[in-house]
Amino acid sequence: MKKIYSVLVENRSGVLCKVSGLFSRRCFNIDSLAVGETDDPAVSCMTIVSSGNQRTIEQIEKQLNKKIDVIKVKTFDEKDSISRELMLIKVKYNRGTRRDIMEICEIMKADIVDMSNNNMIIQICDMPERIKVMLDMLKSISIVEVARTGTLALPKCIDN
Amino acid sequence: MIGADAIVKCLENEGVTTVYGYPGVAICPFYNSILDSTIRTILVRTEQNAAHAASGEARVTGKVGVCAVTSGPGATNLITGIATAFADSIPIVCISGQVKSEQIGSDVFQEADITGAVESFVKYSYLIKNVEDIPRVFKEAFHIANSGRKGPVLIDVPIDIQNAAIKNFKYPEAVNIRAYKPTVKGNPVQIKKVIKELEKAKRPIICAGGGVHLSEAVSKLRTFADNYRIPVVSTMMGIGVMRTEDPMYFGMVGNNGKAYANRAMNESDLLIMVGARVADRAISQPDLIMTNKILIHIDVDPAEIGKNVGPSIPLVGDAGHIFEDIMKEEFTCEHEEWIRTLEEYRETMVQKRDPNPDYVDPAAFITMLSNEMKNDAVYVADVGQNQIWSCNYHIVKDGRFLTSGGMGTMGYSIPAAMGAKRGAMDRQVIAVCGDGSFQMSMMELATIMQHHIPVKIIVIKNNYLGMVREFQHYTYKDNYSVVDIKDGTPDLEKLAAAYDIPFIRVENMSHAQEKIRELLAEDNTMLMECLVDPMDLVK
């Protein structure tokens, strides 16, 4: 079962290490982890995607809550959230593949953000499963390197 | 005033009376400042034992134990002691010196990333980067160590911070950590559910763990058990929650516990686990205790509830508060037949031993020793066969039974006994260890003599690492590997003489009582050697 944990932590040195150390020490999986400051510079938000059975999911939340630097933990499913991932992907192209790549970008709503005679960098910001599709599509062409943010997510807006 | 003076002031404000430790350059400013204080310093002979001693003191006083060591190897030597305290949730604060702030990360002499190294064994850790943070950090550290689920906190202080001038020293009156507010009061709805189950139950039982000691809920639990006639079993860490001879006490559970205690727990229809982790040695098959009974799990740490078993009624809070709240409600429960059944189990399911008369029988010896000890004595058991014999045959009256239960750290008993004695100088403190565990901390005989700490040390000697030998006996059909310590073990009589410690040897049971009386006659340090059959087993 996949779960997303949105973890507000004190923005101090060593906190990322304490949180990721907790996952490794207790053999919890981390599928992805993204960290950034929130509107309050003293607080960071970690978005962690993890999977496991019911007991593991519950333990992850409880163990996170035990950490003194963890201010708040929200756990939710993918379907109850808006999730996005940003990927930068450098591909090698030639006359024969350039049009294909541009078409893929158009279909996938991705942007070409940098270019040289042989390489280009494509930027895509989308739902995690569409990022995967994009990656699969470009695999057959020629990927040079890839950088991804990991999933960022917030629970959907529900009034009351 | 410099940082080091500020640290000493913080300790004074916390009411610390003793610091156990070992100096080195990186902690020298602190050890210089402490000379101006009335706080006693105890120089241990290896850092690990400073943490154990702090742990022993914390366990008898209920206050935070403190140790202070230098950077690098001083700090890394402390790790086993910290992990031992963490496993048993013992509140200690460990101060480690660190190299100069500007040198951190450059692998200079005696530099170790100690906050990184202890991360999974501490409740929290600090690396102080600004001298003005000292008062707040110490206030927080003592609060964190001794509240909620207790545990060790490490404070790493670079030497330049210890030497830096501090402008305004003001010890904070309160702590404010926004993400740390442990729940101590039990949820009233859950408490109502517990009472409802108690009224329905035909075969209720309480399994008490070390958390009952830590929350200082011993007398409340005893009152609760007595008033409602609810039988109690305990884990190893819960030994002493009930007096051993209390009619409502039915022994220690687990694979090394009493058969009747396990049977009682298995046959119960309502099990109240309190301050116990449901760890493998106590509950080898967690699934079993969920099948035929209602399980109520009381713990101050929400993460312990549901970790190993899914309880029917989870109840987060401090055991003391919860028993108080339960007893405020009016209810009755009736299960005299169940008690009679358990009494019968307790009488009939007694382990038969066939002791070799040429040696001391550890079981009979430990019971005899218990009977001769003072009512409020502190008994510190080490790890190994001696620990299991101690658990099963020591009779706790109003004293304490201390041991390293979670981590099972050999060598714990002597330093922990030192700390316990320092914490309660008026009480009798006895360390009981094996010849293996004795040799893991026998360097502390020097500390005991130097600082005049009158603890009694009993070595149950069988010339083997007995617990492992016993395992190899059963599992590897007597193919013994690396467990024979006969040849290297020093003559303990000569060793005692070298430290100027009076020595007693007990060779068999015929003169055991007289020797025990001799051991306990005065409040002085003594070393006793008991020769037990090398082939003796705990089961």
CATH class of the largest domain in chain A: Alpha Beta
The helix-and-strand class of chain B reads alpha/beta
CATH architecture of the largest domain in chain A: 2-Layer Sandwich
Poorly predicted runs of chain B are none
DSSP helical segment count of chain A? 4
Beta-strand share of residues of chain A: 35-45%
Quickly count the helices of chain B. Answer: 23
Q: Which overall shape of chain A is indicated by the principal axes computed on the Cα atoms? A: elongated
Q: Pair with the most extensive interface?
A: A-B, 20 and 18 residues
Mean pLDDT of chain A: 94
Largest sheet of chain A: 5 strands, antiparallel
Taking the sheet with the most strands of chain B, its summary is:
6 strands, parallel
Query: What is Rg of chain A?
Result: 18 Å
**What would the CATH topology of the largest domain in chain B be?**
Rossmann fold
Portion in helices of chain B:
25-40%
**How many domains of chain A?**
2
CATH topology of the largest domain in chain A: Alpha-Beta Plaits
